[in-house]
């Protein structure tokens, strides 16, 4: 008997969803920073065994949308809820509720298996952890409660085994050698965006989108040309920095990570362009892969 299913990870921003999926998959598919709204897309990570295929789905953190991009991000979350075979509702120590009460009600009412995963337990003492477990058992009585540390990989293998046990009987959805549903350019874009999140503050990272114009691969080298889109000319100047130093730093950091990811030498060229108010422009959002319903 073969088992296969979608295992979708949902929660507030900054609870460690991306860290957990990367730990399950064994590859850095989702970018990770300390800033909220790091994940914008729904990213699949596919794990195969002899008799199972677990399709993990990392989604944006649940927020109350303030502009069109965030509406699109929440569409990814809602779709992930609808097609889940196993739902992971991930929280961290100290959280009390999901930021969308209506969505929380859907989680507590669903008949599909729910694993409520309390992350970052290495930051709490035993008494606080026990209080949290009791609280969440009462809040989500239809869920199994698991206590983990995604960064320390504590209880990750045990949680993974439980997920596999809950998968329904299905043939594989994807070829056995496929790791994700995203193309190579997507990971180039996300890697560059991660470096911007790490190197710039305030509104700059949230006003940025990446578009890779060319990706040319030979047996030993990948040549990449990518555009960093910003909303205003003042943001363009900040991204570039004095004599181009800030942009050069982003390029060097991205090249190092991408060489490790692709396993070969990478040459990357970065350009900064103004795309006015792209976060509120439905046509531009479609262009960047934020599909509208």
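^ Assign residues to that structure.
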């Amino acid at each position: 008997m073969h088992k296969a299913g979608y295992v979708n990870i949902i929660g507030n921003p900054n609870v460690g969803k991306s860290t957990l999926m990367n730990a399950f998959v064994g590859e850095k598919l989702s970018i990770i920073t300390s800033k909220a709204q790091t994940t914008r897309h729904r990213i699949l990570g596919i794990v195969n065994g002899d008799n199972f295929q677990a399709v993990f789905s990392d989604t944006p953190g649940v927020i109350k949308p303030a502009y069109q991009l965030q509406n699109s991000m929440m569409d990814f979350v809602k779709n992930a809820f609808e097609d889940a075979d196993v739902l992971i509702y991930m929280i961290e120590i100290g959280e009390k509720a999901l930021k969308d009460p209506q969505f929380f009600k859907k989680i507590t009412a669903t008949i599909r298996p729910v694993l409520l995963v309390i992350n970052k337990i290495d930051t709490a003492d035993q008494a606080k952890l026990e209080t949290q477990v009791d609280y969440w058992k009462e809040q989500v009585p239809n869920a199994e409660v698991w206590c983990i540390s995604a960064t320390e990989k504590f209880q990750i293998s045990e949680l993974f085994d439980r997920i596999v046990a809950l998968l329904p009987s299905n043939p594989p959805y994807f070829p056995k050698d496929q790791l994700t549903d995203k193309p190579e350019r997507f990971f180039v874009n996300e890697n560059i965006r991660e470096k911007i999140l790490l190197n710039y503050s305030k509104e700059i990272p949230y006003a940025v989108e990446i578009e890779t114009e060319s990706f040319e691969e030979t047996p030993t080298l990948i040549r990449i040309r990518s555009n960093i889109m910003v909303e205003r000319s003042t943001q363009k100047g900040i991204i570039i920095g004095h004599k181009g130093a800030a942009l050069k730093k982003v390029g060097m950091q991205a090249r190092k990570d991408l060489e490790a990811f692709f396993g070969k030498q990478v040459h990357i060229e970065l350009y900064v362009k103004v795309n006015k108010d792209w976060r509120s422009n439905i046509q531009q959002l479609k262009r960047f892969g934020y599909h509208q319903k």
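The chain has a mean pLDDT of 85.
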